[in-house]
Write a structure and sequence with these properties.
Largest sheet: 5 strands, parallel
Strand content: 5-15%
CATH topology: Rossmann fold
Strand order of the largest sheet: 2-3-1-4-5
Number of domains: 1
Order of helices and strands: EHEHHHEHEHHHEH
Shape: globular
CATH architecture: 3-Layer(aba) Sandwich
Number of helices: 9
Bound molecules: adenosine-5'-diphosphate
Oligomer: single chain
Mean pLDDT: 95
Low-confidence stretches: none
Radius of gyration: 16 Å
């Protein structure tokens, strides 16, 4: 089972992904986590992307596609992949389809968490103090939301056209959202 958790920043993708790792033995592939790990390690890649991420802009397709490609083998040994924060552009989505096809795999389901912009701004105002993430400051967050609306949201018709898109109300409690995602996953495996 290969799942894309789709939605704006702070929609709750990471929270739901972590739960699925526990319950379904899937592997979470979060490009945001991978990039933050690169920054923390002080690697050349980390230094290259640090400023871009702080500003809330997207890093290049090339970089994130390579990060994902390196991790695909381990997802096959487990219960599949949960793509979290990837793909974020049409080029990334197409590259992902190609990489999976080369391995005889595919995306089975895309779950879109729907949360309106105002609720996101409120969530992030609360999270900034705790997360310590420089890109959670209100100015960077606005840029992230703008990038989502301009570059990522246009992927919805791409996946809808493939018949893989399921929408879930992301405004509910963590458990309610989790139950909706489980229902969608069970619908595919059934
Ligand atoms: P969130 O979902 O809360 O916005 P992420 O942890 O997914 O946060 O991403 C944090 C930042 O990392 C993004 O704002 C962007 O700069 C960079 N990033 C993560 N994934 C990608 C991607 N697939 N393409 C381009 N940039 C990315």
């Amino acid at each position: 089972m290969n799942l894309i958790l789709f939605g704006p920043p702070a929609a709750g993708k990471g929270t739901q992904a972590k739960r699925l790792v526990e319950s379904r033995r899937m592997v979470q592939l979060s490009t945001g986590d991978m990039l933050r790990a690169a920054i923390a390690s002080g690697s050349e890649l980390g230094q290259k992307v640090d400023g871009i991420i702080k500003r809330g802009e997207l890093v290049s397709d090339e970089i994130v596609i390579e990060l994902i490609e390196q991790r695909l083998p381990e997802t096959e040994a487990a219960g599949g992949a949960i793509f979290d924060g990837f793909p974020r552009t049409l080029a990334q989505a197409q590259a992902l389809d190609e990489m999976l096809a080369q391995r005889g795999k595919k995306i089975d389901l895309v779950v879109r968490l729907k949360v309106d912009d105002e609720a996101l701004m409120q969530r992030i105002a609360g999270r900034f103090a705790e997360s310590g993430r420089p890109d959670d400051n209100p100015d960077s967050f606005k840029v992230r939301l703008g990038a989502y609306n301009a570059q990522t949201k246009p992927l919805l018709p791409y996946y809808e056209g493939q018949g893989k898109l399921v929408e879930v109300d992301g405004m509910g409690s963590i458990d309610t959202v989790a139950a909706a995602i489980d229902g969608a996953l069970d619908g595919v495996t059934a």
